[in-house]
Specification:
The chain is an all-alpha fold and about 240 residues long. About 70% of the residues lie in helices and about 0% in strands.
């Protein structure tokens, strides 16, 4: 038996487990809700994260995006369509494929400017999206450069699901969420935060308080780029 057929056997076992199935529904609903909310904001012509200063690194990007006219609306429409496709069982695979490049872009952007608003949620959404793509492997495998596929059928819902709880899998999910939150909290010594007061609070009574406050003013008062303000902070800190 080749590796592919072994993988197919594992896949069928996973697809026949009720807990994996319920988790796929949770991922679908969560991802769809997030993009329905974000998409409607853009479709309605409102600025996303309107409380964020327009000179904040992420705020500057969102402000520029807001002023792109129908392109801004187009992004909202695509997000909304991706969300609706995820909610319809027959179009989940298409929705996951459409969703994926959008959420990866949001994740990279959030990390690039260290935006707290999606610093935790965006990587978790990417992982949830990957889970849905893996869950629909039986449909996606025909797009992959795989030879000697075991069969040419799409998985059908079993008459009865297995109720065996996958402790290892859900332990991994909890650990992944914990590590993501921990990285957001401790992964960077300096974060621009979403407001001047929150930014300054991270440096109070620290050895680099003066340099840190200057960093915050560079971001929130002067509209400096994250890289420029970080370079100044590195030169000024003790």
């Amino acid at each position: 038996m080749n590796n592919l057929s072994k993988f197919d056997e594992l896949y069928l076992k996973v697809k026949g487990n009720r807990w994996y199935w319920l988790f796929s529904i949770f991922c679908r609903l969560s991802l769809a809700y997030a993009f329905i909310v974000a998409g409607m904001v853009k479709i309605m012509g409102e600025r996303f994260a309107s409380g964020l200063s327009s000179i904040h690194p992420m705020g500057a990007y969102l402000e520029a995006l807001y002023h792109t006219g129908y392109y801004y609306t187009f992004i909202g429409i695509v997000q909304f369509i991706a969300a609706i496709l995820l909610l319809i069982p027959r179009t989940v695979t298409l929705g996951a494929l459409l969703y994926f490049p959008i959420i990866v872009n949001i994740w990279i952007l959030s990390f690039a400017v260290r935006f707290e608003g999606s610093f935790v949620t965006s990587p978790l959404m990417v992982l949830a999206n990957l889970y849905l793509l893996a869950w629909n492997y039986d449909r996606l495998k025909y797009l992959l450069p795989i030879k000697n596929q075991a069969d040419n059928t799409v998985f059908k819902k079993p008459a009865k699901y297995s109720n065996q709880f996958p402790f290892a899998f859900f332990t991994g999910v909890i650990v992944t969420v914990g590590l993501t939150i921990a990285f957001a909290r401790f992964g960077h010594d300096v974060m621009p935060r979403n407001s001047l007061s929150d930014c300054k609070a991270q440096f109070i009574n620290s050895e680099n308080e003066i340099a840190g406050i200057r960093f915050c003013e560079c971001i929130h008062l002067e509209g400096g780029s994250l890289d420029e303000c970080l370079e100044e902070f590195e030169r000024s800190k003790n």
